[in-house]
Amino acid sequence: MYGNRNSCISKTSSSSEPEYWVSIPNTQPIKYPPTLEAHGLERVTPHHIKQQLRRIAKSKFALSTVVTSLIILVTAVLLAGVVSYFAINVTSTRAQEESLALTKQHIWHDFNTGTTQAAIIAINTGGRDVVIDKLTVRGQECEWSKVFYAVVSDSISGDLLYNSTLVDGGVISVGGVERVFKQATTDLTLQSGKTLIYMLNPDSITVSDVGLTVSITIFTSQAMYYKETNVQGAGGIANVSGSSGSGGSEASPLQLVYVSAYYREFDGDQVAIVLTNPSGSAVSLSWNALYVDGVQVNGDWWIYYDTTPFTSNLPYYTGKNTIQGHTLEVGPTTHTVNPGQWMIIYYQKDTLFDETDVGSTVSVVLKDGNGQNTNTKQVTVQLG
Q1: What pLDDT digit, counting tens, does each position of 154-190 carry?
Q2: What is the pTM of this model?
Q3: pLDDT tens-digit series, residues 293-315
Q4: Domains contained in the chain, CATH given
Q5: Which of 109, 379, 159, 107 is nearest to 269 (CA)?
């Protein structure tokens, strides 16, 4: 093969070692056959090619050993990181974790019967079923025969209310919907969704615990879930020292529909009530008919009454704003609630709540002129 100076030409010679003819600048020719000398080519052997490759390897334009090692090391680390991230991502995606969310916790003590009741909603927010193997109130385990539960899938906006009777198959209204409760016999299995739990007579709660903070704890095989709440009064007014009378067993025909409680540092604390008289007889109500957590409240009150139903909770009343489009008036000493009548009532007192009560739940009940108690409402104290 023949070519110009920039070509590589091989030739088979009679010697045992093959010959290559190339153009090598600045190198003295070894031997020029007459037929190739005219083309300006030189004859080289594999030995000469190896020498040229060594020169290229030692050239200053080649990568150093350190840089080459760093490139290899960084590449290996990046590859290992990608593999590890992929493995962790696959593992965490397939893993299903246990998770319970507890809300709307309450503990009531019935002043009339002396019984105690606890209630809580457990929401399974994890990716698998959860088994509850123990329920405790203030550290004392509650027997399964005293536990009643209902499983629901819809959203619950209303609060849990005190229920005077807990029986297997009993119906309790929660969030405006009648729920059928079952009596537990062994560990509870919580599937995805919400489970309403009522506990009858948890140990170590007495009338002297009303107002104190008590814990409710749910135990599973993998974790424990803990919530605190204040013990509330229910079933009437406590007949204890310092109370201005005891609540009767008969119920007043007046019904509390909406109740709100507000704390405001300088302008006065308030309890705002919407009530109605669905009975066929008139019922009297006085300015000191309010009881909060079993304690009678003597303060100011404003009222408005109409035959049109009021359909929502009431805001804080400043004395200047209208409430649902109505102007309130200062209430007399006693007011008569006629059959079918609706009322807006604001009770105000400066020391009704304090700053620490904000966010806690209180029990609100009214006693009518016949000494009968209305239904009890559990409300959360808000900032006014």
Answers
A1: 777 778 888 877 788 888 878 778 888 889 998 988 8
A2: 0.43
A3: 888 888 888 888 888 877 778 89
A4: 9-57 (no CATH), 100-234 (2.60.40), 255-383 (2.60.40.10)
A5: 379
